[in-house]
Design goal:
The complex is a heterodimer. Chain A has one domain. Helices cover about 85% and strands about 0% of the residues of chain A. Chain A is elongated and about 70 Å long. By secondary structure, chain A is mainly alpha-helical. Chain B is an alpha/beta fold. In chain B, helix 3 packs across helix 4. The chains are: A mainly alpha, B alpha/beta. At the A-B interface, helix 5 of A face helix 2 and helix 3 of B.
Chain lengths: ~280, ~270
């Protein structure tokens, strides 16, 4: 058979690699489509809704502390880095503006997303990967249940719906972190911090950050479940799947962030024109 | 060889089934016909594709070529959704039990009932207790799989496999990893289920004690094909060196087997 002939030239390798990648693309697309079609149905069935609650707890509630710590330190470090330069330029009253805008538009959503890719994505891949390795996913199918509906949909929906909520927590604590450094420690006026923040930060800024976080949540849910479902044999397979899941989630979040930011910036300028912050 | 079924009592039939994973040819033209209400044991070395064979019967793996019929209906081209009603006729005992870690023993057994029946919680509770009683474990409902011993996990898994009162039960290495006493309890259960519930059983194993005890018919799988088919007595008295080596567990005979060219044996159906 022609397929038996082993070719190892660079062109053959490139071809094989391309086919493998395309294959994986097709796989994850089918996986995603099946998940979406079940998601719509999940909102009506009581049993499907019941499966959501434990996922909300483990993905949402249990992530709150780590998200808040992330937000706090991001806000504080931003203030520490900016305060000297702002003071030198006589702009210390505007500290709230730089901290809040940076956190709300970019750092809050992205860092919350990355934190969740690690905390939630890793755990989901490990859990589903272990279920695959120990034949629990096959067991579900053997009992006539669809593993995507039972396992993937609740996890995906929890990631999709709760990432924006967690991002809000991260934003809030980030702004407070900036205040903590600026006002009590570097004696910026409390009134100025909040007044200029209020002037500069628009609903659009908060909404655009949350808009991005919805995509980050979907990315985390989809990649981690897919990697878990397709993990290799044994403990090594599960470990490898977790690493791949985190790295892929991280990279996709950063790339998505860039393109969504570009898109939103274009949309804002088309509607309201260029905005001068200072 | 043992005279098997006539066509009317055939429940599972495989015709010229082939399956390969990458370069590895696992099944090479399997022809098989299983009689209703009988216990068939498939033996063979580890890695000969015994689990792959029974996973074909329930649609967890699709054949590359060939046909699979269940009760006269051709099932191999069916979609995942069309398999659902067929799979509800099956119970599948996985090698390691495959209990859901996130559910208690009782919830594991209740799972298929909650998914596919409209029974009330009280009725499901009763069925769970009855099934656990059948496997001799009533009372472990609220324990987590991690709190159970290996043998208990396997018995809970068996209770889950029979929760929906299947007519066909597939056992994947039911006694592997259990001590001889525990193994024998499982063997007794297989016989009890056949006698009391009249189920058709397919047991995949390399434990010859278990095979001899439960089998109405034994098939030996070797390199993707059946090389022997008969009753327990046929296997005890066989002169085929490959079968003898396996039955007696003699490694020296295994070496002879590898150098011998495999003669074709009757693959009666």
């Amino acid at each position: 058979m022609a397929a038996e002939i082993t070719m190892n030239g660079p062109i053959a390798r490139l071809g094989r690699l391309t086919l493998e990648r395309l294959d994986a693309m097709g796989d994850i697309s089918v996986f995603a489509l099946r998940t979406f079609s079940h998601c719509l149905r999940a909102t009506v069935h009581k049993r499907d809704l019941e499966r959501l609650i434990p996922q909300f707890h483990s993905i949402g509630t249990l992530s709150v502390p780590v998200i808040m710590v992330t937000g706090l330190f991001v806000g504080m470090v931003l203030a520490i880095q900016a305060i000297e330069q702002f003071r030198a330029a006589g702009l210390e009253n505007r500290m709230g503006v730089i901290v809040s805008l940076s956190v709300v538009r970019e750092l809050g959503p992205v860092l919350a997303g990355i934190m969740l890719a690690g905390r939630v994505g890793g755990a989901l891949t490990a859990e589903l990967g272990t279920m695959r390795v120990t034949e629990q996913i096959d067991a579900l199918r053997s009992m006539g249940s669809d593993p995507i509906r039972v396992l993937v949909v609740p996890r995906f929906l929890a990631c999709l719906l709760l990432t924006p909520v967690l991002t809000l927590y991260c934003n809030l604590v980030g702004v407070l972190g900036g205040w903590l450094i600026s006002v009590p420690i570097f004696n910026v006026s409390n009134w100025a911090y909040w007044t200029y923040t209020e002037l500069a930060v628009e609903t659009w800024d908060i909404a655009s950050g949350l808009f991005k976080s919805v995509f980050f949540g979907a990315t985390i849910g989809m990649i981690s479940c897919y990697k878990g479902f397709n993990c290799g044999q044994g403990a090594q397979g599960v470990g490898k799947a977790c690493t791949e899941s985190f790295v892929a989630g991280f990279v996709v979040i950063l790339i998505l962030d860039f393109f969504i930011a570009l898109l939103l910036k274009g949309a804002y300028e088309a509607i309201w024109g260029f905005k001068m912050i200072f | 060889m043992a005279g098997m079924s006539n066509a009317s009592s055939t429940i599972i039939e495989m015709r010229q089934v082939y399956k390969r994973f990458g370069p590895l040819e696992v099944l090479r033209g399997i022809d098989l016909s299983l009689a209703k209400g009988r216990t068939t044991v498939v033996i063979g070395e580890s890695g000969t594709g015994k689990s792959v064979l029974i996973k074909h019967m329930i649609g967890l793996i699709r054949p590359d070529a060939g046909e699979i019929h269940i009760d006269g209906q051709r099932v191999d081209p069916l979609h995942e959704k069309q398999w659902v009603p067929i799979r509800q006729r099956f119970g599948y005992l996985f090698q390691m039990g495959a209990l859901f870690d996130s559910l208690t023993a009782g919830e594991n057994i209740a799972f298929p009932l909650k998914e596919h029946t409209g029974l009330s919680d009280a009725e499901i509770h009763d069925i769970v207790a009855r099934k656990l009683d059948l496997v001799g474990l009533d009372g472990v409902q609220n324990k987590w799989p991690s709190e159970l011993s290996g043998g208990q996990r396997k018995r809970v898994a068996l209770a889950r496999a029979i929760a929906m009162d299947p007519d066909i039960i597939l056992y994947d290495e039911p006694t592997t990893g259990l001590d001889p006493i525990r193994s024998d309890t499982i063997n007794d259960l297989i016989i009890k289920l056949k006698d009391e519930l009249a189920v058709t059983s397919i047991v995949v194993t390399h434990d010859m004690t278990s095979a001899f005890k439960v089998a109405d018919r034994i098939l030996m799988l070797n390199q993707g094909q059946f090389i022997a088919d008969g009753t327990a007595d046929d296997f005890r008295n066989t002169r085929d060196p490959r079968v003898r080596a396996f039955v007696t567990g003699d490694a020296d005979l295994n070496i002879i087997e590898e150098s011998a060219t495999p003669p074709t044996r009757g693959e009666s159906s």
